[in-house]
């Protein structure tokens, strides 16, 4: 398959997500982009796990990073016996998948596939490093291609001058939405909620939208109600970290309250992504509580005084009643009607 | 009157708000506190105007700063003829009051009073500088004392273990609430919304609450819905930059959406402050649109990429239907029943 990252903004090109080469994985440090364009170089799969846990990359970035991390694991154990290599890869698969609890489900689908690819290569006497690396790129191509299908349905919802409110950084879907809208010459206007504490909206989504030539305005997270009341906003859209089979959506902290505000102002909220098979309902979602020190700081500057505490839920859960539609690669579903999708789901990772 | 800033946190003590002495006004730089404790030294009233416009101080800080600025204006023109001194003070009164558009109404009440005090002293051959300075301290005492009365009604609403959500930095009311709650040994828990873009909640309100010994947790502005759903929050309270006669409340950007979210989660929102006589309805409110560059930065670090725009409404307007009560010095009024207060209002500035 042709590489699917053509004509996409800098952040979406494969080498700038996570990339294995010559015994190391380079991961673009999304915590600081675009203030600085730096890559974190990982020389072991444990470094990759650590980088994911520390949110060097986020959104869909970790899915690429764990695949490339599996290639690196294969490199690390290349001089061992076949049995030891397979055991090492099995362990790497588990550790990489569990770098962050909320997404362990999806991550393990990727690392287990990489494991199987690596194991097969080892047993056949082929190069497991290259096999895993190529398979990861294949996965990227399939994911980008699947998300392009999702983006088609989203772009169809938009008129030639729609104003779109975004939250956090939806990565692939953002890139595909922008590429398609540009191809179709839709003159979209983007409002990007900055998305504290890491400002992914201000730094990542807004950078992509502006790089692709669209009118792009960042708002602080507390301007949403003001924006919806005072400016024309046609649609709110976000990606999802989890979509349960019954239509609950886990996404970056802040999504839930934007959805509530959109309901108040009659702006429809569309989620993009594929339902997570096996995640039955909201009880199956684990919300990762991160170290509060991380949200009391920005760029290593501590904002608060001594004795002030923080709290840091990474994600929140939006219930189906606040969601107008879930946009999948096979069309748009009401959140309570995902069973229609689940009869014939796409397994894109 | 005894100085009313006893037993208050650092930020509320008069010398740490704005203070005239020996031909200069020192204003605590609230943009950077508590990261750094720095004061901006103004050697002309125009410097004070500039400092207010640049938000060196905010909330009630400007009310003190303009009074002290008027004392400084009197110092600047001290060698002129009486007529010239009076003209200079008149001009200073106008310029100081209009440093920021949204609060010009309240500010001019203060500067006009300072003007009259100064003029009277000049015509009597007395020292206008000291007269204005002492009158400004008197005003501070009266305001603190009035806000202590407001705080009594607020504290009465709280049980011994209430959890209180705050927005931005209400200054005097925050100090008085904390002093009274401490006196009454109420073991309050505070959640402070960080309040982008200047983080007044994280830096100022949270510092005061923690300094006074209360359990204090900062949340980012996008965690409000999560907090209200997952933690015990008994009340949301904020001060106001304007309260119209028919119950519309202007306050720091973000207040409106917290009020909407509180309605959703059945948490009552109480506004503290005195209605603005003459501000009939929401049409009489001017929302200051500030330079967007200011919200695309933090501590002079530009967060966004080139070609990304920002938007920066300083305030938003919360309608009466989202407000459970407006807490004044004469009791708690429903926002649509402020006429009861306005029959016999307190003029505290």
Structure characteristics:
homodimer; alpha/beta; Four Helix Bundle (Hemerythrin (Met), subunit A); Rossmann fold; 2 domains; 7-stranded mixed β-sheet; 3-stranded antiparallel β-sheet; 16 strands; 17% strand; globular; isomerase (chains A, B); S-methyl-5-thioribose-1-phosphate isomerase (chains A, B); IF_2B-like_C (chains A, B); IF-2B-related (chains A, B); S-methyl-5-thioribose-1-phosphate isomerase activity (chains A, B)
Tell me what you see in this structure.
Two copies of one chain form a homodimer. Chain A has 349 residues and is of the alpha/beta class. Chain A has two domains: 10-143, Four Helix Bundle (Hemerythrin (Met), subunit A); 159-342, Translation initiation factor eif-2b, domain 2 (Rossmann fold, 3-Layer(aba) Sandwich), CATH 3.40.50.10470. In chain A, 39% of the residues lie in helices and 17% in strands. The first copy, chain A, has ten helices and 16 strands. The first copy, chain A, has helices at residues 45-53, 61-76, 82-97, 104-124, 128-157, 172-183, 200-211, 224-230, 255-264, 339-342; strands at residues 18-21, 24-28, 39-42, 163-166, 189-193, 215-219, 235-238, 242-243, 249-252, 269-272, 297-298, 301-302, 309-310, 315-318, 325-328, 331-333. Chain A has a seven-stranded mixed beta sheet. Chain A has a three-stranded antiparallel beta sheet with strand order 1-2-3, with helices on one face. In chain A, a hairpin with a 2-residue loop joins strand 11 (297-298) and strand 12. In chain A, helix 1 (45-53) runs parallel beside helix 3. The longest helix of chain A is centred in the middle third of the chain and has 30 residues, at 128-157. The radius of gyration of chain A is 20 Å and the shape is globular. Chains A and B meet through helix 7, strand 6, helix 8, helix 9 and strand 12 of A and helix 7, strand 6, helix 8, helix 9 and strand 12 of B. Strand 13 of chain A pairs parallel with strand 6 of chain B. Chains A, B: One of its GO terms (molecular function) is S-methyl-5-thioribose-1-phosphate isomerase activity. Chains A, B: This is S-methyl-5-thioribose-1-phosphate isomerase.
């Amino acid at each position: 398959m042709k590489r699917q990252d053509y004509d996409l903004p800098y952040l979406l090109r494969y080498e700038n997500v996570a990339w294995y080469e010559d015994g190391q994985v380079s991961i673009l440090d999304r915590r600081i982009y675009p203030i600085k364009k730096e890559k974190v170089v990982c020389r072991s799969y444990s470094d990759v796990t650590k980088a994911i846990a520390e949110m060097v990359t986020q959104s869909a970035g970790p899915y690429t990073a764990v695949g490339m991390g599996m290639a690196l694991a294969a490199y690390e154990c290349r001089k061992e016996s076949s049995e030891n290599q397979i055991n090492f890869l099995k362990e790497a698969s588990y550790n990489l998948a569990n770098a962050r609890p909320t997404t362990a489900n999806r991550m393990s689908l990727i690392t287990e596939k990489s494991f199987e690819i690596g194991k097969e290569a080892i047993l056949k006497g082929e190069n497991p490093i290259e096999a895993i690396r190529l398979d990861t790129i294949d996965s990227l191509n399939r994911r980008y291609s699947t998300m392009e299908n999702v983006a088609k349905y989203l772009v169809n919802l938009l008129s030639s001058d729609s104003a779109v409110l975004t939250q956090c950084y939806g990565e692939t879907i953002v890139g595909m939405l922008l590429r398609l809208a540009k191809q179709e010459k839709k003159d979209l206007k983007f409002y990007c909620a900055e998305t504290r504490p890491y400002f992914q909206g201000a730094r990542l989504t807004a950078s992509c939208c502006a790089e692709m030539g669209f009118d792009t305005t960042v708002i602080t997270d507390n301007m949403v109600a003001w924006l919806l009341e005072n400016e024309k906003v046609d649609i709110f859209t976000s990606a999802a970290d989890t979509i349960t089979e019954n239509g609950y959506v886990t996404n970056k902290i802040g999504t839930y309250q934007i959805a509530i505000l959109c309901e108040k102002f009659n702006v429809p909220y569309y989620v993009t992504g594929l339902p997570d098979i096996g995640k039955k309902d909201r009880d199956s979602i684990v919300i990762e509580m991160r170290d509060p020190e991380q949200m009391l700081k920005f760029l290593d500057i501590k904002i608060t005084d001594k004795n002030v505490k923080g709290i840091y839920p990474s994600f929140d859960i939006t219930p189906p009643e606040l969601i107008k539609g879930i946009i999948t690669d096979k069309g748009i579903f009401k959140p309570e009607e995902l069973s229609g999708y689940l009869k014939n789901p796409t397994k894109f990772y």
